[in-house]
């Protein structure tokens, strides 16, 4: 039987830049993800109030939503919320009427913007915000009320600590997603080092021994990692 490899690629491969990825995302989204006035208003509100543009991308938001739906999540924990303008809304809208989303955020400078964004999205009653260092807040959460999905998107140096707590808090069969762990390819480059990169490397080393976990990295622009039990 003829070998499948090497794969014949008909297109000429081209190196892709952030600009290319952004353009490609926008192109695909224009077919697959209709404009959502609520999400657009939240992004606009956050930008007008000076919040940094560091929310997950549109496709990542939908990806999070899809995972929450697939496992029929009723309780979600988000570490690192910004002003609740993006991942929080995508995740919140995946929940059933009696679902609950707890978000942990260290910086409450933009509490008013968050309130507006979540209220406009109809999520005020489902979404509870705990202000303070994410790890302290996680430690204070009881392990008898498990979460179906935990999304970690805060400071990378604490990723392993967050993962350790997330393991305690997630139900069997649940999902933990950690955002931004490819860091534009820098994590794999031995010449590169800073506290974020080292935080991701620490997480990866910690995960290597976690044989009960089904782990993978999905490379996107900066990327997400998926883990499930
Ligand atoms: C990338 S943003 C989150 C974006 C948000 N998940 C979204 O996609 O819309 C990271 C957030 O983590 C928060 N953060 C940073 N360090 C933190 C810590 N130690 N505990 C909790 N939150 C933290 C920052 O204030 C910021 O709002």
UniProtKB/TrEMBL annotation:
A Pfam family (short name) is: Methyltransf_3
Q: CDD domains this protein is in? A: AdoMet_MTases
Which Gene Ontology terms cover its molecular function?
A: O-methyltransferase activity; S-adenosylmethionine-dependent methyltransferase activity
Q: What's an example GO BP annotation here?
A: methylation
Q: What InterPro entries has UniProt attached to this entry? A: Cation-dep_OMT, SAM-dependent_MTases_sf, SAM_O-MeTrfase
UniProt keyword list: Methyltransferase, S-adenosyl-L-methionine, Transferase
Q: Entry's SUPFAM superfamilies?
A: S-adenosyl-L-methionine-dependent methyltransferases
User: What's the family?
Assistant: Belongs to the class I-like SAM-binding methyltransferase superfamily. Cation-dependent O-methyltransferase family.
Q: Which protein is depicted?
A: S-adenosyl-L-methionine-dependent methyltransferase
């Amino acid at each position: 039987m003829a070998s499948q490899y090497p794969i014949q690629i008909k297109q000429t491969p081209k190196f892709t830049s952030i600009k290319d990825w952004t353009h490609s995302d926008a192109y695909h989204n224009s077919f697959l993800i209709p404009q959502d006035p609520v999400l657009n208003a939240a992004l606009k509100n956050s930008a007008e109030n000076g919040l940094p543009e560091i929310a997950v991308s549109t496709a990542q938001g939908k990806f999070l939503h899809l995972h929450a739906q697939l496992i029929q999540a009723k309780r979600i924990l988000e570490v690192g919320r910004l002003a609740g303008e993006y991942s929080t809304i995508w995740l919140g809208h995946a929940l059933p009427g009696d679902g609950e989303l707890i978000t942990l955020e260290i910086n409450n400078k933009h509490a008013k913007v968050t309130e507006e964004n979540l209220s406009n999205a109809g999520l005020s009653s489902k979404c509870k915000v705990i202000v303070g260092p994410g790890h302290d807040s996680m430690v204070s959460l009881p392990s008898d009320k498990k979460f179906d999905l935990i999304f970690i998107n805060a400071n990378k140096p604490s990723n392993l600590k967050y993962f350790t707590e997330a393991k305690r808090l997630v139900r069997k069969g649940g999902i933990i997603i950690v955002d931004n762990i490819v860091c534009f390819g820098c994590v794999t480059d031995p010449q590169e080092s800073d506290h974020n990169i080292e935080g991701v490397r620490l997480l990866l080393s910690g995960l290597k021994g976690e044989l009960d976990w089904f782990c993978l990295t999905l490379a996107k622009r900066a990327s997400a990692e998926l883990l499930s039990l």
